[in-house]
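Quick one:
INPUT:
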């Protein structure tokens, strides 16, 4: 009987401490779902999977750790919101306002970000692999380059090219981006495009006084030319030549990864 009484007392005390916090969150959650107006609300940890929040006003809200996977947030105002650790996997954020939002550890993989505004929002510590329509101004050349490397490591060379293109759109003199593109084109079987990109990378490395980069690019070009010459002389494909191509790509990737700051 004593054990039972103590257990009941403990449960009542625990419930008494927890109830006010949960009630406040439930009130804010109800307000959001009822009106789509919840500026500066505390929605931390809220479960909003598949929620229709298109056009909602969540400016300054605390959504840390909330689950908004597959949610409809097109045109929503999330400016200044705390989105740390928030899941937006597959969410529709088309045209959403994310200006100044805190997105440390936010999961935006597979999210739709076409025409989203990300002014003053650093995406460097967010998970964004596979995000669709990521604006070029959402990150630095190094960040897009790092995503390109991650995709290349997984064999997703077309996705790698997309990220390298974004890095180069921000900084047209980013030599590593051209070398990365050359490697991706090589893996996709477009040797002419590979050669053109690596030639430009070599030029930039030389101008920027980067001897390791210049040497890597030159070795890439020399081996590629040797393979093409041998292939022409021997009248077609050769397993040994394919091995050389793989070796060239491997060395280039080792150089690209050295010193690179990879994202999540």
């Amino acid at each position: 009987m004593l054990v039972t009484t103590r257990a009941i007392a403990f449960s009542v005390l625990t419930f008494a401490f927890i109830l006010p916090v949960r009630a406040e969150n439930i009130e804010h959650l109800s307000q959001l779902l009822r009106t789509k107006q919840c500026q500066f609300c505390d929605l931390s940890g809220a479960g909003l999977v598949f929620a229709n929040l298109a056009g909602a006003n969540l400016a300054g809200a605390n959504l840390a750790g909330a689950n908004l996977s597959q949610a409809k947030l097109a045109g929503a105002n999330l400016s200044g919101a705390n989105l740390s650790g928030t899941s937006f996997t597959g969410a529709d954020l088309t045209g959403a306002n994310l200006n100044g939002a805190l997105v440390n550890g936010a999961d935006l993989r597979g999210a739709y970000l076409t025409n989203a505004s990300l002014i003053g929002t650093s995406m460097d510590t967010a998970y964004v692999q596979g995000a669709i329509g990521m604006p070029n101004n959402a990150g630095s050349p190094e960040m897009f380059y790092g995503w390109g490397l991650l995709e290349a490591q997984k064999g997703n060379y077309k996705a790698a090219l997309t990220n390298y293109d974004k890095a180069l759109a921000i900084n047209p003199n980013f030599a590593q981006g051209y070398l990365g593109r050359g490697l991706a084109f090589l893996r996709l079987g477009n040797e002419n495009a590979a050669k053109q990109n690596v030639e430009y990378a070599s030029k930039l490395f030389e101008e920027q006084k980067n001897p390791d980069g210049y040497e890597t690019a030159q070795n890439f070009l020399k081996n590629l030319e040797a393979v093409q010459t041998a292939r022409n002389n021997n009248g077609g494909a050769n397993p040994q030549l394919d091995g050389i191509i793989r070796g060239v790509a491997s060395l280039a990737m080792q150089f690209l990864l050295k010193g690179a700051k990879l994202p999540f």
